[in-house]
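Protocol step 4 of 6: structure prediction from sequence.
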Amino acid sequence: MELVAYMKSYFGGLLCVCWSPDGKYVATGGEDDFITLFYFDPN
């Protein structure tokens, strides 16, 4: 297993993480009441 990214919440901790069905995006939600979308390019 290899760490490919480090994601940090803007305030508080992460409460949920969800990958898109195609595996290209990840959505995170946290104690800061924001949803953040990240694009993941495995290449």
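Step 5 (inspection) to follow. The mean pLDDT is 84.
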